[in-house]
Amino acid sequence: MERSTRQRQAIRAALREANRPLSPGEILEYARQQVPGLGIATVYRTINALVEEGSVVAVELPGEAARYEMAGKSHHHHFHCTSCGKVFELMGCPGDLSWLVPPGFHAEKHEIVLYGSCPNCPGA
Amino acid sequence: MERSTRQRQAIRAALREANRPLSPGEILEYARQQVPGLGIATVYRTINALVEEGSVVAVELPGEAARYEMAGKSHHHHFHCTSCGKVFELMGCPGDLSWLVPPGFHAEKHEIVLYGSCPNCPGA
DNA sequence: CCCATATTGATAATGATTTATCACTCTTGT
DNA sequence: ACAAGAGTGATAAATCATTATCAATATGGG
Questions:
Q1: Residue A97 belongs to domain spanning
Q2: Where does Fe cation bind (chains A, B) (predicted)?
């Protein structure tokens, strides 16, 4: 059966406690604070298991490797800091955007990403 | 100095005449109608040159390889057909979205991608 | 406590996209 | 028309993120 290991606990904790989507590398970094020897392979394995069980979802961003966040959040979008590369969660949404599509097209969903600087980075 | 070859003409024409962003593979396909022996390496080389000279811009999409479109268009967004994978240009924009970002963040730009089915694909 | 085995970590392998190489070809100034 | 050298095509090689491998380790039911 599935076992509860320190590694998995640390990875779950990282995703639960970070209030923003994390890349595999960021998850590794966070979780290593609890489990120093943690390897990247275990991070990927665990992410995949969590996505498969539905408790975590992938956040895809233009030209970037996927980030991961806890599932079950309401519809929202993301902010990508162009300075540090961190991705943050935004709340709110402009609403239905299907008026943007020409006749013949059918819009089913949308993704919005805002870019700029986060509070920790020089306003550039 | 820079030479005007059939290959470059065909690649520029493909990008100019397609009224949507093209992937390197799509550019190859289109341009080969004019220059049958065209190789993918030339497509990449030419794309890079065109981007560098500023006449073409990359269109990055979540979880996808970049597409390329002519530069100089006014602010717009894109539609990604989930059935055929083609990317289309949309006109219009919900406008300023900086109200979405929390205090301390500074939004400089945004990207919006709509997903759904294009006129050529089954509404699925 | 013990052992079957799920899990891990290090690293090799993969897959997909993009770039470098190099001999040959085509463009262009003269 | 000619020659210098920019450009091309085929393909090897480089990236880079992700996955597979496998010996060693740690979990947890009995």
A1: 77-116
A2: 75, 110
